[in-house]
């Protein structure tokens, strides 16, 4: 019974901490989900309309990037948004994973773009903005939100360690 109470209070602790920033996290997740769709959907639609392959294949990305971003990560952002609004603790855990994913992507886009430009690959300015700069900006916001989330959780976690030990 004591263990069940600890798990419940731990879940309540995480949700209470997240709740103070809930609107910001929800906006971030919504923006991230929409940004992923906006970044890749125009290329997919134009290739479907023209009956050709994607123009940047082999130069910038692969088909799997489109599938992962639009079919999995953007959907996961919207599902996590829903879970956070409903107060589900799993939403908080998925949020932490999404924030770390966005941070990694935001960091890796910079050397990727530098290497592509150094190799002589011509990247149109709209593609550079939608597929480069937007992900770097999202990565910066993810870093900020990740830092805020763990900074708010840390002092409260010190007190919970003593409860768990007993």
TrEMBL record:
Keywords: Membrane, Transmembrane, Transmembrane helix. It comes from the Bacteria. The chain crosses the membrane at residues 25-44, 64-84, 91-111, 123-145. This is Putative membrane protein. It comes from [Clostridium] cellulosi.
């Amino acid at each position: 019974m004591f263990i069940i109470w600890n798990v419940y209070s731990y879940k309540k602790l995480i949700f209470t901490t997240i709740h103070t920033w809930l609107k910001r996290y929800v906006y971030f997740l919504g923006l991230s989900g929409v940004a992923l769709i906006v970044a890749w959907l125009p290329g997919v639609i134009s290739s479907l309309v023209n009956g050709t392959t994607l123009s940047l294949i082999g130069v910038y990305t692969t088909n799997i990037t489109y599938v992962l971003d639009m079919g999995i990560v953007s959907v996961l952002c919207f599902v996590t948004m829903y879970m956070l609004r409903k107060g589900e603790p799993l939403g908080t855990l998925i949020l932490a994973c999404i924030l770390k994913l966005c941070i990694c992507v935001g960091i890796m886009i910079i050397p990727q773009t530098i290497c592509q430009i150094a190799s002589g690959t011509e990247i149109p300015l709209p593609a550079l903005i939608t597929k480069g700069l937007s992900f770097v900006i999202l990565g910066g916001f993810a870093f900020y939100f990740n830092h805020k989330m763990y900074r708010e959780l840390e002092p409260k976690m010190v007190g919970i360690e003593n409860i768990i030990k007993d």
